[in-house]
Design goal:
The protein is mostly helical and 313 residues long. It is built from 13 helices and two strands; from the N terminus they run ααααββααααααααα.
Length: 313
């Protein structure tokens, strides 16, 4: 029950956040040079045609009046209409959002797949050869940008070995799964170094605790002590670290989507900015804001579930 109350409180607190974001984005995007109507009609458009289209798009009204109109539509669940794509913004987001969610889920999965075993091994073999090698991984990983990692993966596993497609998302579920592997690993390689360092440090601290020493003295195997007792307690702080970085990554997926030509909302955002598609940029920005809040919410709930001492307020 406490989780339900907490989630409802967070949903209510999201309303002023979205209003503030909508206000800032609405006015900031209009500082971008260029006229959306002129961009749509092309360089040979007459001033009369441009003015007529601006009237249709509501761009001739004062900015405050445009914002109030946008806000009124937003409260009705209407994010506007994209003249660039000749479609509702909600429909565009509904098509591209699942791709971005797939990318975040696969990135999180591969991050855990890489980081947890390496961090546990490094902590269990502290100051050993394996620990020294694993500690060097974060230094290398943190120094490489995501787009470079993506290009390397494409060259090796896409072009040379041919194991995975070099871009696109496909049409069937099987193609979706194959197409999201390299982007997901790219995301994981940027997140895993941070999680490894955090989880390793937490594991070392937990393994030196009195109850771990007591467990060893009772004859419990090292594997059971490490995996059954130490890992859960050590994972508490690392869950927060992972959640914060996933929330940060939510707004920066456009780099990975661009490299792998994924039709996600990050890619949609870039195309909309270049096309001066104000409604789409505003809608996608609000979706990004909601996704960040949702990720932070899930992180807090997971933290509380792992550590009952944490009180959700």
């Amino acid at each position: 029950m406490r989780y339900v109350v907490y989630i409802l409180k967070r949903v209510v607190s999201l309303i002023p956040v979205l209003l503030g974001i909508s206000f800032i984005v609405f006015f900031l995007i209009r500082l971008i040079p260029g006229d959306p109507a002129a961009t749509l009609l092309g360089v040979h458009a007459t001033p009369e045609a441009v003015k007529e289209l601006r009237d249709q798009m509501g761009l001739e009204k004062p900015l405050l009046s445009q914002y109030l109109t946008f806000l009124g539509h937003l409260l009705q669940g209407n994010l506007g209409f994209s003249y660039v794509y000749n479609s509702s913004v909600l429909g565009l987001i509904g098509t591209s959002l699942p791709v971005t969610i797939w990318l975040l889920v696969s990135g999180t999965f591969f991050t855990l797949l890489i980081a947890v075993p390496l961090a546990v091994l490094a902590a269990a073999r502290r100051n050993g050869v394996a620990d020294n090698i694993i500690r060097a991984v974060p230094v290398v990983g943190l120094g490489l940008p995501a787009f470079l990692l993506g290009i390397v993966l494409i060259l090796v596993f896409g072009l040379k070995l041919g194991w995975f497609p070099v871009g696109g998302y496909g049409d069937s579920l099987a193609e979706h799964l194959r197409g999201i592997v390299l982007p997901g690993i790219t995301v994981a390689l940027t997140l895993a170094p941070i999680v490894i360092r955090s989880l390793r440090a937490s594991m070392i601290e937990v393994l030196s605790s009195d109850y771990i020493v007591t467990a060893h003295s009772k004859g419990i195997s090292t594997a059971r002590v490490v995996l059954g007792h130490a890992l859960r307690n050590a994972a508490v702080s690392s869950v927060t670290v992972l959640g914060v970085n996933i929330a940060y990554l939510t707004g920066s997926t456009l780099v990975v989507e661009r490299v792998f030509s994924l039709p996600g909302i990050g890619q949609q955002m870039i195309n909309s900015i270049f096309g001066r598609d104000f409604p789409t940029v505003q809608g996608i920005t609000l979706v990004f804001a909601i996704m960040v809040v949702v990720v932070n919410l899930l992180t807090d709930v997971a933290h509380s579930a792992l550590d009952p001492r944490v009180q959700l307020a």
